[in-house]
Amino acid sequence: MSPLPLGLRLPVAGFLPLFPILIGAWVARAHGISPKAFGVNLVAAALGIVLAALLSRRSWNQPDRLAPVLAATALALLAATLLFPSLEGVHRWIALGPVRLNASAVTVPWILLAQWMLLSQARLGLALGLVAMPQLLHIAQPDAGQATAFSAGVLVLFSTTRSIPRGWRVAGCAITVIGTAFAWGRADPLSAVPHVERILHLAADQGVLWLLAALVALGGLFLPVPVLGAGAGHVLGWYSALGILRYSMTPPTR
Question: Which of 40, 139, 146, 210 sits 20 to 30 Å CA-CA off 29?
Fold first, then answer.
């Protein structure tokens, strides 16, 4: 078995998110915010390393069975956000005790994996459904940022899968773009949280060097996920994507 590329080996890739997480915690602390808010990031990173390691031991022998299970599970988790109490009418999170997880950040990598499997099997009706359903949920939540992130992945998958008819590719791209537009059209009453969405602004307030350090730390992640701010969802999402990459590059067991 050929070894994984250096960048995907756990002793390297597994620790890449720790640098932006620690920088984010320090920047937040400098602005009077307790670094304890970033404790969930570190716990999520530890769980993520275990997940990425386990995924590379799994087999690809039954992708036809795996795709529907992945899709149904991920959609159920994403839809579950609508059952939890909202924040000013916004439903983006699943509450696990005191921790709130952005469900879309966690599930989108798995939805895109299922999407790739369905496209590779030419199950085109299911593939289009798996474009529409997450975007409908992003509109309902609403979460324009995650709708955009999901759309980027869908556009890559549909535009590069040349084995399916052009009409299906155009339909997939159109559905996700329209869904993103509707998500952005929904009013979002929530203000940006300084140590989450505005963490780069806090770094800039500390000076150019800290802003550059934060950007370099984020740039070192070969998967563009905002793990710099406090929150476990995006960290778990990043490690899920890492595990999927490792999974896809590991030959099936016999």
Answer: 146
